[in-house]
Design brief:
Structural class: alpha/beta
Strand content: 15-25%
Number of strands: 12
Protein name: MPP superfamily phosphohydrolase
Radius of gyration: 24 Å
Keywords: Membrane, Transmembrane, Transmembrane helix
Distance between the termini: 50 Å
Largest sheet: 6 strands, mixed
Strand order of the largest sheet: 1-12-2-3-4-5
CATH topology of the largest domain: Purple Acid Phosphatase, chain A, domain 2
Shape: elongated
CATH architecture of the largest domain: 4-Layer Sandwich
Pfam family, one: Metallophos
């Protein structure tokens, strides 16, 4: 089993090196045609591999590199992830055109610079467009009806923000947009379904993001659950402590009876299944609660919606998928998850998956947009429900 894991790691590394080498070779050919005699191939490859491996350098060197240097490498590496995807999509098409022009006996001195500059312009346009989508969050409204009573409440307004990914890339500037838009919403309750931080807790503390996040206020409170990135970072106790200090309660396989009218179920992330303590099955979590009252569950990854529906959950809130973040990745998330974005009715369950407020890796979104969910829940004792 260990040998199999080693082989998989070697295979992944070989693919990563191969793809980067493919992109690097094309960039070298282009620069050699436009750089003239000033182009130095040896220096080029040194710089190229520093850029291509910058995220790994930041990751493994975080303990020994100065924080400013590690931060720079992580920013460069994050953008490089986007450039890799653009390269994988654009360069095969470029090669196809080159093949046609080659057989047409057109000189490379003519077509290489032209095709290269076309690719550069396309990439820059995609970066600008994707940056706008990532940095301009929208509010998406979902209005649902639950055929249960919640005391004298007729409706509940809930602000939902998943996958904020606070850290080196997503910081206070973007976080202030969340605070401003949520305040304008005037929610009764604020829910954060996982990945509040992006692996490492240190940037959150260093840049005092808690002070900004503390401005998220709601009469019924602010609650969060853990996402896979909190587990990847391995700073869960520190994260929970930071959240508690600013009045946000992190639910880890816990149930809260809100005003004795509504149950809020907060699950550990699916990653906890392989961590110490594991995570409880949903059925055991809600065992013994009054199913006649509304039940809202937060589960970062949108798996097993059928289990939530069968257990009597009324609303299931998730994130994690980012809707692929950069198209055409959404084609993969669609195949992995029954619902990778938006709304799905499954029996009496209302499932909602957000594309997330922040980003992982490059602060780029194509085919998706940073979003906050405004969820309005109507409560009724009627057997019929209206969506």
């Amino acid at each position: 089993m260990r040998n199999g894991m080693v082989l998989r790691v070697i295979l992944i590394l070989a693919i990563v090196v191969g793809i980067n080498g493919y992109i690097g070779w094309h960039l070298k050919v282009f620069l050699s045609h436009v750089g003239g005699t000033s182009f130095h191939p040896g220096l080029y490859w040194i710089v190229f591999w520093l850029v291509a491996l910058s995220y790994l350098i930041a990751w493994f060197g975080s303990r020994v590199l100065p924080s400013s240097v590690s931060r720079l490498f992580k920013i460069i590496g994050s953008y490089w992830f986007a450039l890799i995807q653009f390269g994988v999509l654009l360069l095969p098409l470029t090669d196809l055109v080159i093949a046609v022009l080659h057989f047409a006996s057109v000189s490379p001195m003519t077509y290489v610079p032209i095709l290269g500059w076309i690719d550069v312009v396309v990439v820059l346009a995609l970066l600008l467009w994707g940056s706008y989508n990532a940095r301009t969050p929208v509010v998406r409204k979902h209005e649902i009806t639950i055929s249960k009573q919640a005391g004298e409440w007729k409706q509940l307004r809930v602000a939902v923000a998943s996958d904020i990914h606070l850290g080196v890339i997503v910081g206070n500037r973007h976080l202030r947009k969340l605070v401003k838009q949520v305040k304008a919403m005037k929610p009764d309750l604020i829910l954060l379904p996982g990945d509040v931080i992006d692996d490492d807790i240190k940037p959150f503390i260093r840049y005092q993001m808690g002070q900004t996040m503390q401005e998220l206020q709601a009469p019924l409170g602010v609650y969060a659950v853990l996402g896979n990135h909190e587990y990847h970072g391995g700073h869960i106790p520190a994260f929970v402590e930071q959240m508690e200090q600013i009045g946000i309660r992190v639910l880890m396989d816990e149930v809260v009876h809100v005003e004795e009218r509504l149950y809020l179920v907060g699950r550990k992330d699916k990653a906890a299944e392989h961590a110490a303590g594991g995570r409880k099955p949903l059925v055991s979590l809600i065992e013994g609660i009054d199913l006649a009252q509304p039940i809202i569950a937060m589960d970062h990854q949108p798996y097993q919606l059928d289990v939530a529906a069968a257990a009597g959950v009324d609303v299931n809130l998730s994130g994690h998928t980012h809707r692929g973040q950069i198209t055409p990745n959404h084609l993969f998330t669609r195949r992995i998850f029954e619902l990778d974005w938006g709304y799905l009715r499954k029996g009496n369950l209302h499932a909602i998956v957000s594309s997330g407020f922040g980003t992982w890796g490059p602060p780029i979104r194509l085919g998706s947009q940073s979003e906050i969910i405004e969820l309005i829940i109507h409560f009724t004792s009627n057997d019929r429900e209206e969506d």
